[in-house]
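Q: Could you predict the 3D structure of FAD-binding domain-containing protein?
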Amino acid sequence: MSDQSSPAIRFSSATREEALGRVDGFAHSMGSVYARSRNDDLGPEDRHNVSCLSPYVRHRLVLEEELVARALADHGPQRAEKFIQEVVWRTYWKGWLEQRPSVWADYTVSRSAVWDNVIQNKPLLAHYDKAIQGGTGIACFDFWANELVATNYLHNHARMWFASIWIFTLKLPWELGADFFLRHLIDGDAASNTLSWRWVGGLHTAGKTYLARADNIEQCTGGRFSPKPGDLADVALPLGEVDHPARTPIPHLLPVEKGLKTGLLITADDCTPENILDGLDVASVAALPLADTRSELDTARAVTEFEHAALTDALSRNRGEMLKQPADVLDWAKRNGLQQIVSPAIPVGWSRDAMASVIAELNDEGIVWREIRRSWDDAIWPHATAGFFKVKKQIPRVLEDFFDVKS
Ligand SMILES: Cc1cc2nc3c(=O)[nH]c(=O)nc-3n(C[C@H](O)[C@H](O)[C@H](O)COP(=O)(O)OP(=O)(O)OC[C@H]3O[C@@H](n4cnc5c(N)ncnc54)[C@H](O)[C@@H]3O)c2cc1C
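A: Sure. Here are the predicted C-alpha cells for FAD-binding domain-containing protein:
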C-alpha cells in the first residue's frame, strides 16, 4: 500500500497494489481540488493537488478507465470533469500517434542527426550540458533540470515551462529536450512526450506555441520562482509549419487463434495483461524490458529499475520468466514449443521499434503473433484524428458506454 507519510514524489514500489493504494490516497482530490489547483507546481515536497499517478498509468499498473471510474464514483461527472479530461489526454496522444507513426520515426531520425551535430559543435555541446546539468543561471529552469534527474518526475506545468524555455529562450533543439525527458521520466511515453514537445514548439497545432511567462511561473509556483525581466524569451515563433503526415488506419488486429499452444509476452506498456485474456489458456509467460531502448543515450537507472519492478510485479500475477533482450523472445518461444504469442497491443514508440524484428523472426518460424487492444483505446483512438477537442466531445458517450453514467 502507499506510504502516505512519504512525499508522493517517491516512486519506490512499482506494483499494482501500490498503484491502487495511490489511487485510493488521491481519490478525494479528483474533484474540485484538482479542478481548482492542478496548475500549481508547489514543489516536490507538496504534490497534494496532482495525482503523481503517471508512472503507474503509463505502465498500465493501473488503467485509465480505473482512474476515471474512481473519479466518477467519488465526485460524479461534473466535479470530476477536469480530472477525467486530463486522463483522456494520454489516450488522445496515443491514438493520434498511432495514426501517424511516421511522426515518431521522423523524431528518432532527426534526434540522431541533431545529436551528431551537437557533439561536433563544442560551444553548442557546452550549452546543452549546462541546460541538462541545471547550470544556465535561470533559477526555475535549473531547479527543474535537477528535479527531473533527482526525482524522475516533473509537474505538468513545469514540463510546459521547461520545454518552452529550452526551445525559445535557450534555443536548443527540441528533439534533445524531449530526449532528456524520455531518459529521466519514469512515465516517459513516446506519444505524450514527443507530441507535447511538438505542441510547445508550435508543430502540433497551427498558430499555437507555448510561451513560458514570468508572471505565470511566479503565480503558479506560489512565488518559489520570480524570473527577472530579460531572463525569458518574450516571443515564441513556431519552429516550423504544422505539416502532419497523412493519417494511416489504426492497425487492424487479427483475433487470437484457438487451439494453439500459446505464450503471453508482457512489455512495460501494459503490466496488467491478465484482464484482457478473456479466459485464454496460456502455456507460458515472459516479460521483456525495453526501457533502455528509449534513447541512443543512457536511460536513467530509476527508469529501468521501475520498469523491471513493474514487469516483476506483472510476472508475480501471471507466473513467468524475465527475458533480457528482444532476441530472447524467439528462444523462449522455441524452448516452450509455443505456436502462438499474444501480447497487449504494442504502441508506436521504442517498443514497437524493438519488436518489429522479433515479430518478423517469429513469422519466419511459423509462430503466430497476436496483439490485443484494450476497449478503452478502441473507443477513443478513432476520434484522435485532429485536436483534443474532438475527443473531448466524445467523453460523455464514453462515460455512458463504459460506466453507464450520464453527464
Ligand atoms: C513537454 C511535456 C512532456 C510530457 N511528457 C510526458 C511523458 O513522457 N509521459 C507522460 O505520461 N506524460 C507526459 N506529459 C504529460 C503530463 O505532464 C504528465 O502526464 C503529468 O504531468 C503526470 O503527472 P500526474 O500523474 O501528477 O498528473 P495529474 O495532473 O494528476 O493527471 C492525472 C493523469 O492524467 C494524465 N495526464 C495529465 N495531464 C496530461 C497531459 N498533459 N498529457 C497526457 N496525459 C496527461 C496522466 O496519466 C496523469 O497521471 C508531458 C507534458 C509536457 C508538457
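Q: Anything worth pointing out?
A: Residues 1-8 have pLDDT under 50 and may be disordered.
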